Amino acid sequence: MSYIANTLSNLAQQSAFATMSVGNIIMIAVACVFLYLAIAKGFEPLLLVPIAFGMLLVNIYPDIMKEGGLLYFFFKLDEWAILPSLIFMGVGAMTDFGPLIANPKSFWLGAAAQFGIFAAYFGAIAMGFNDRAAAAISIIGGADGPTSIFLASKLGQTNIMGPIAVAAYSYMSLVPIIQPPIMKALTTKKERCIKMEQLRPVSKLEKILFPIIVSVVVSLILPTTAPLIGMLMLGNLFRESGVVRQLQETASNALMYIVVILLGTSVGATTSAEAFLNATTLKIVALGLIAFMFGTAAGVLLGKIMCIFTRGKINPLIGSAGVSAVPMAARVSQKVGAEEDPTNFLLMHAMGPNVAGVIGTAVVAGTFMAVFGIV
Question: pTM of the entire structure?
Answer without folding.
Answer: 0.89
